[in-house]
């Protein structure tokens, strides 16, 4: 019987396989280095050092200080903590949040949850290329606005939002600015100093690290409410024994992403455009969704004239 080739995997915004170097880096923490990083005895030394190395590696990709990185279980948890942490900390100042209509459910559902506790949310629409307008954001600001949360890049069409401009507006108005960067790390530059954000989240499994690990950048001057109460790990914000294996994997993946970003961006863009050209040559009537230039280099969303998405998937 002839062997079928496995299907070609194109869903890298869904998840990525682990990088071989990441697997190599995490192996000791699966096999022998099982110690608790909080232990003051011998077994805690290597895991503790490994967690701090990973913190520096993540900080290197985001261009921030390692003390501004908190490890979490992934993008969803980072989004929950960032939004509820700021909402709770600033409740006395106001109860208004601004977000966009195209955020991941891990942002939209948190806003809806907070609405049950008296918060109000403005959901900014996007234009036909998937872009949020910074002037729409500015017009939505109220005296009681405490948080603006707009994703860096969209997971489906890949449109990259004008985060730098929105951050500038937020700063002028004294409002905390957060961005969900789960889809942008390793694909486009994500230096927090350039983006001007106060908080930013990342998800390990989108960047060749294991699943179930993520991180949250919190600018030193920003003070969210504690996320997880307990024994004081992660600067006292997110208590709980660290996922050392995941953290080491995320650190290594971020180191690789930072090192290879330029090369990878060119390679992904070349493949993305080649796929589009091939589809166009074979099928003709297709149209790329999202913004023609402000778009993730790895992301291609295509509309086929006269055909519904479900029919094509079938
Ligand atoms: C934009 C965005 N934010 C958040 C998440 C959630 O991340 P995680 O799967 O690590 O919880 C995803 C995952 O698809 C995403 O695409």
Q: What's a concise summary of this model?
A:
This protein has about 325 residues and is of the alpha/beta class. The protein is built from 9 helices and 9 strands.
Describe the structure.
The protein is an alpha/beta fold. It contains 9 helices and 9 strands. It has 2 domains: 26-257, Aspartate Aminotransferase, domain 2; 261-313, Aspartate Aminotransferase, domain 1 (Alpha-Beta Complex). 40% of the residues lie in helices and 13% in strands. A 7-stranded mixed β-sheet has the order 1-7-6-5-4-2-3, sandwiched between helices. Strands 8-9 form a two-stranded antiparallel sheet. Helix 1 packs antiparallel against helix 8 (244-283), helix 2 (42-62) packs parallel to helix 8 (244-283) and helix 3 (75-89) packs parallel to helix 4. Pyridoxal-5'-phosphate binds at residues 74-76, 79, 104, 106, 151, 155, 180, 182-183, 203, 205, 214.
Ligands present: pyridoxal-5'-phosphate
Strand order of the largest sheet: 1-7-6-5-4-2-3
Average pLDDT, rounded to a whole number, is 96
Number of individual domains: 2
CATH topology of the largest domain: Aspartate Aminotransferase, domain 2
Major pleated sheet = 7 strands, mixed
Write the layout of secondary structure elements.
Elements: H1 20-31, H2 42-62, E1 69-72, H3 75-89, E2 96-100, H4 105-115, E3 120-124, H5 134-140, E4 145-149, H6 163-173, E5 176-180, H7 192-195, E6 199-203, E7 214-218, H8 244-283, E8 286-288, E9 302-304, H9 309-313
Parallel strand pairs: 2-3, 2-4, 4-5, 5-6
Antiparallel strand pairs: 1-7, 6-7, 8-9
Helix pairs in contact: 1-8, 2-8, 3-4
Bound molecules: pyridoxal-5'-phosphate.
């Amino acid at each position: 019987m002839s062997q079928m080739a496995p299907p070609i995997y194109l869903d890298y915004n869904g998840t990525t396989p682990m990088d071989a170097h990441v697997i190599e880096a995490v192996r000791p923490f699966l096999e022998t280095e099982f110690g608790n990083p909080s232990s003051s005895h011998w077994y805690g030394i290597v895991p503790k050092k490994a967690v701090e190395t990973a913190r520096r590696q993540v900080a290197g990709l985001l261009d921030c200080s390692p003390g501004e990185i908190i490890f979490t279980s992934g993008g969803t948890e980072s989004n929950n903590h960032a939004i509820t942490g700021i909402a709770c900390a600033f409740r006395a100042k106001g109860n208004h949040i601004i977000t966009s209509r195209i955020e991941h459910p891990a942002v939209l559902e948190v806003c809806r949850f907070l609405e049950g506790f008296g918060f109000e949310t403005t959901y900014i629409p996007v234009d036909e290329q998937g872009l949020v307008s910074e002037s729409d954001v500015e017009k939505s600001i109220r005296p009681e606005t405490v948080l603006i949360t707009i994703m860096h890049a969209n997971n489906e069409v890949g449109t990259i939002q004008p985060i730098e401009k929105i951050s500038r507006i937020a700063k002028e108005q004294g409002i905390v600015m957060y961005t969900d960067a789960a889809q942008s790390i390793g694909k486009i530059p994500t230096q927090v100093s350039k983006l001007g954000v106060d908080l930013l989240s990342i998800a390990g499994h989108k960047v060749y690290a294991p699943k179930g690990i993520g991180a949250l950048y919190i600018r030193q001057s920003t003070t969210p409410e504690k996320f997880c109460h307990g024994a004081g790990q992660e600067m006292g914000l997110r208590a709980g024994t660290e996922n050392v294996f995941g953290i080491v994997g995320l650190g290594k993946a971020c180191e690789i992403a930072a090192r290879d970003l330029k090369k990878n961006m060119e390679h992904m863009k070349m493949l993305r455009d080649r796929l589009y050209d091939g589809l166009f040559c074979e099928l003709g009537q297709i149209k790329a969704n999202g913004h023609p230039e402000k778009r993730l280099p790895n992301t291609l969303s295509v509309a086929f004239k006269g055909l519904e998405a479900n029919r094509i998937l079938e």
